[in-house]
Amino acid sequence: MRRSWAARLWSRVGGGRSGGGGGGEGRMRLWGAALQAAGRAGRREGFPLQGHDVARWFPGHMAKGLRKMQSLLKQVDGVIEVHDARIPLSGRNPLFQETLGIRPHLLVLNKMDLADLKEQKEIVHHLEKEGLKNVIFTNCTKDENINQVVPLVTKMIESSYRYHRGENPESCIMVIGVPNVGKSSLINSLRRHHLRKGKASRVGGHPGITRAVMSKIQVCERPLMFLLDTPGVLAPRIESVEIGLKLALCGTILDHLVGEDIMADYLLYTLNKHQRFKYVDHYGLGEACDDIRSVLKRIAVRLRKTQRVKVLTGTGDVNVIQPDYSAAAYDFLRAFRSGGLGRVTLDAPAPREPPPPAVATVGGHAPAPGSAG
Ligand SMILES: Nc1nc2c(ncn2[C@@H]2O[C@H](COP(=O)(O)OP(=O)(O)OP(=O)(O)O)[C@@H](O)[C@H]2O)c(=O)[nH]1
Ligand SMILES: [Mg+2]
To answer: In whole angstroms, what is the distance from residue 109 CA to residue 182 CA?
Structure first.
């Protein structure tokens, strides 16, 4: 299939492991180095997107939900936009900024437990440049950083030019975001943290769990704060196939609308590109590889996921046992989504601009304007 010279080279680099002399730790180190080298040398330089459509998924409940959210905007004091920390720079619905972005706005990058946070600073810097000054990373399943949400929202509301609270001490915040990013989980987590109360909003592992704008849910007593849960809303037109694939990998679009096969291939491409090689150990593959068919075949064999296929030959029907590629792709996606393949961030922030060149000074003083060098 799509097996470039580089991929072949990669397999050879990996293959050198068994042939190499020595053993134990030395070999492990060598193997680690080989993987690194392979990561640089053997991965695909790009992902072929031609011939693929951008997934479209804008069912009725999303359009209805968005209308309702717009109509309720006047009654809320602020907006918490929840997004997936694995795609901090892409996939947010631009309609939110256009139609709902006028209120005090907090961006919660949730599922931080699944994201590779080594470039967190660069990401925050990048978002700041886009005008997003209030960003928090959270893990709603373990209530990590949840204690920061209410104080920050309160501060944002109080410093907003619309703030004239008068007698009414309560605030109401709308929680928005694309599907399956953890909006309802955030509400439940805040209630657990501040009120020691159980779930108030239904949560689920696939997109489209919350179907309608819900009534106000109290999440804190002091200060008195209510949150409005809303259905996940995707942009009616997703910007590009690549963003669609990232959204799909994070489970915000129904898998079958995109196709598990291309999602698995894009996942493999991304893991290799970002040098996240945990999948090699996870499936006992022995070596990194950039050919999805070969990876899925080995996953299927390892998981004993095979299927009988009838093949018509000249002498009659023959039952052939084949690897179940779909089951393997599904397992690969599920492992990624549950963190089994390690922490991965699918977006890479643009490199920071280099600092301006230092002005040469003489004796600690900058040269006077217009003076000769
Ligand atoms: N690993 C991890 N999983 C999370 C986190 N927060 C939520 N989840 C899981 O993500 C899935 C979606 O959570 P929901 O709270 O239903 O997401 P939602 O945004 O309300 O989804 P819709 O209502 O469908 O738009 C569930 O399986 C949650 O358990 C988190 O911080 N880390
Ligand atoms: Mg929900």
So the answer is: 10
